[in-house]
Write a structure and sequence with these properties.
With 307 residues, the protein is an alpha+beta fold. It has a domain at 114-175. The protein is 52% helix and 11% strand. It contains eleven helices and nine strands. The strands form three sheets. A four-stranded antiparallel β-sheet has the order 5-6-4-7, with no helix packed on it. Strands 1-3-2 form a three-stranded antiparallel β-sheet. Helix 2 crosses helix 10 (224-244) and helix 9 runs antiparallel to helix 10. The protein is globular and about 55 Å long.
Amino acid sequence: MNKLTTLDTLITRFQQQKPIRASSLVITLYGDAIEPHGGTVWLGSLIKLLEPMGINERLMRTTIFRLTQDGWLTNDKVGRKSYYSLTGSGRRKFEQAFRRVYNSNQTVWDGSWCLIMTQQLSPEERKQLLDDLSWQGFVVLTGQLIGSPITNLTDINTVLVSSGLQNKVIVFKTLQQEELAGKQVRTLVRECWELDKLGEQYQEFINLFRPVWQELGDKESLDPESSFLTRTLLIHEYRKLLLRDPQLPDELLPGDWEGRAARQLCRNIYRKVTPAAEQWLGNNLESADGPLPEASQSFYQRFGGLN
């Protein structure tokens, strides 16, 4: 039934990674497909689900064991079957990233910046802080000053407190500027955030998935398994890009920013394949109570609303 031929290219590309990033793919699967359906699934059905990706039973069992050891997953045994779900900490880790993936609302920037003076930190502390704040767009602006146009002070303070650095740095929030993104600011942003490199990565994503969208346009009905596998690899690749994207305000990005086209493409493909993908999941995944429950209401709000 109308299998997607472009899927072969996606799977081949995934399998050419050495080593295969099975753990990352499993986290994508949980965040995209399993959590909306109750969050718990039988290991046996997981193994069968990802076999077409080139992840055999041995690799899957090893991957699940490592994710459990690392605190991502927890398991319950019912009879001879093991059922796995995300731990509380595992869920919190992926929620921030996945919220970015599916959110359709671009926050309006007020022109303010958050600046943090780090001269009292050791090089190791400064590096760790920058790593912890990178998902909020922080980079080194100059010397020992890091900054971001994303000014959620509550989230920033949470990071500082959890790392024990709240009394070793000075945090400033600037006032709104009359000129939000002058030439000097745009030059600073392009250089400090390496937007050219990120733009090239977004273009690679577009080149990879545009043929998928073109093939989808020619089909009236879709093969459920092909749709599920395509959706999983789509979100897997897009999620990896968003982890590198500082999510800067639109006013600071180039007019032809590749990230905009990549997001629209991802949204269009996701909406198109989701009905058939959900059918496949319902028929092939099993929880301790039987078939997976229906997807939560929040699932259907992804990308501004799913059909």
